[in-house]
Design goal:
Its EC number is 2.4.1.-. This is Glycosyltransferase. It is an enzyme of class 2 (transferase). GO terms for molecular function: UDP-glucosyltransferase activity. By secondary structure, this protein is an alpha/beta fold. The chain folds into two domains: 257 residues, Rossmann fold, CATH 3.40.50; 200 residues, 3-Layer(aba) Sandwich (Rossmann fold), CATH 3.40.50. Helix content is 45%, strand content 15%. The protein is built from 20 helices and 16 strands. Strand 12, helix 14 and strand 13 form a beta-alpha-beta unit. Helix 7 packs parallel to helix 10 and helix 13 crosses helix 18. The protein binds uridine-5'-diphosphate. The site of uridine-5'-diphosphate (UDP) has 19 residues, from helix 1, helix 15 and helix 16.
Length: 482
């Protein structure tokens, strides 16, 4: 067979955490839908979650996607193979530090598979050297917004361009961005102080990025055009916003199996929502990693009750001793709220007509999924890029209000508790009927329409993906000719 006529083959290698695996598997499906052969590389303990998503895809996609496995070497001190099993920030940082041990097994897999392109998670900067050695183009996937990429590019300089406000030295403006972005000093971590791994890691990543063939982004141009243009210019590398990738999940099965099906009861939660008036319910979820203290959970429970807003709340803690007295009968039993323990079918919930808002930790997938569903947000960032995403939601897009979280979480037990009355006030502002809430709802709905257009034939993300595939096909043909 003429090699050049063989289909393009892309290897996807996501970080072992739901917030990176889910969008990368979605990406593999999107590329497969455009005629590409995709391989998703993961470890044995993560294979079931990837298979469960791929197995529910359309027949025509399924046969184009393969799952390949690589093992942690026995010397790597990992207790589990996914960051969502690790209960603390410290344990998750240690896990990130072990990832470089995958370098040698990755090298072996790469030599066997020999794909035409690698989409590697940013947490694997060492993949670039191996890709270069074999002459394979490599794109990085950061799992971040274009605003967060722009900020991270600024902050990785030896002297970050920050200016304190004259009347409030605790607040800084990040200079050189196309829009004014203000953060509290306490929201910006000194990564090298938090963990020696993270400090070194960002230096390594910066160097690796200089040599990669580009950056794939789960966002769409119209959502953050200024930052898309800015990042491309200052970072000096090709950038392909191809999202929102979650929109590749079309039917009920695909949406309900996304990520993990272990503890979900989709039917139960959807029938609960079916009984609620349109746009009345607040969905509350803090992503796949973070666990709050019992004291904070109790304040949340009181806050939701006081806001008088029906809610679906995903709680990762197993215990219930933090529930206020009588809460089960008064609130949960009374149909005013539902608690999901473990994993929720987030995309199904966000798209249910009864859901009118999302209280989110501002993980990028969650922000984008809410915007795609046309929902306003209550924002409660905790760590990583979440404080920057909050600025996009609240200040730039004006589709959310923050609870006032100001501390980047380094150790869970040191975080101050946000009181129930504060939570109730912000929830009521977002879910209420006044001019402010109506304005947010209208803007959010418009974002939802724009998001869908972006991935339709001819939309900005659709076109970007087509251009990338064309470029990769040309590079493949040139390699095969030489
Ligand atoms: N998610 C879900 N059900 C849950 C929790 C999370 O489907 O109970 C999905 C959510 O839709 C998103 C991802 O997991 O796609 C979480 O990514 P995000 O960037 O929002 O947060 P992280 O988990 O990385 O902090």
């Amino acid at each position: 067979m003429d090699l050049a006529s063989e289909e393009l083959h892309i290897l996807f290698f996501p970080l072992l955490t739901p917030g990176h695996m889910i969008p990368m598997v979605d990406m593999a499906k999107l590329f497969a839908a455009r005629g590409v052969r995709a391989t998703v590389l993961t470890t044995p303990a993560n294979a079931a979650a990837v298979h469960s998503t791929i197995n529910r895809a359309d027949d025509s996609l399924r046969h184009r996607i393969t799952v390949a496995l690589l093992h942690f070497p026995s010397s790597a001190a990992v207790d589990c193979e996914n960051m969502s099993c690790l209960p603390t920030q410290v344990a998750r940082q240690n896990f990130l530090g072990c990832l470089a041990s995958l370098c040698q097994p990755f090298d072996q897999v790469l030599r066997e598979i020999r794909p035409d392109c690698i989409v590697a998670d940013m947490f694997y900067p060492w993949t670039l050297g191996l890709a270069k050695e074999l002459g394979i183009p490599l794109l990085f996937f950061h799992g971040m917004s274009l605003l967060a990429l722009s900020v991270s590019h600024s902050m990785n300089r030896p002297k970050p361009p920050l200016e304190s406000l004259p009347d409030d030295p605790e607040t800084v403006v990040i200079l050189g961005l196309p829009r004014r972005i203000e953060l509290k000093r306490s929201q910006i971590p000194d990564l090298s102080k938090i963990s020696s791994f993270l400090g070194d890691f960002f230096r390594q990543l910066g160097e690796a990025e200089m040599g990669c063939s580009g950056v794939l982004v789960n966002s769409f141009y119209e959502l953050e055009p200024d930052f898309a243009d800015h990042y491309k210019k200052v970072a000096g590398r090709k950038t392909w916003p191809v999202g929102p990738v979650s929109l590749c999940n079309k039917d009920f099965d695909e949406k309900s199996s996304r990520g993990d099906t272990a503890c979900l009861d989709s039917a139960n939660c959807l029938s609960w929502l079916d009984c609620k008036p349109p746009s009345s319910v607040l969905y509350v979820c803090f992503g796949s990693l973070f666990q709050f203290s019992p004291a904070q959970l109790r304040e949340m429970a009181l806050g939701f009750e006081a806001s008088n807003t029906p809610f679906i709340w995903v709680v990762r803690n197993k215990s219930s001793e933090w529930l206020p007295e009588g809460y089960e009968q008064r609130v949960l039993g009374g149909g005013k709220g539902m608690i999901i323990r473990g994993w929720a079918p987030q995309i199904l919930i966000l798209n249910h007509p009864a859901v009118g808002g999302f209280l989110t930790h501002c993980g990028w997938n969650s922000c984008l999924e809410a915007a795609t569903s046309g929902l306003p947000m209550v924002t409660w960032p905790l760590f990583a890029d979440q404080f920057v995403n909050e600025r996009l939601i609240v200040d730039v897009l004006k589709v959310g209000i923050g609870v006032g979280a100001t501390e980047y979480v380094v150790e869970e037990e040191k975080v101050s508790v946000v009181k129930g009355d504060v939570i109730a006030r912000v929830v009521s502002r977002v879910m209420g009927g006044g001019e402010e809430a109506e304005g947010m709802r209208k803007r959010a709905r418009e974002l939802g329409v724009m998001a869908r257009k972006a991935v339709e034939v001819g939309g900005s993300s659709y076109v970007a993906m087509g251009e990338l595939i064309k470029e990769l096909n040309e590079a493949k043909a040139a390699r095969e000719e030489s």
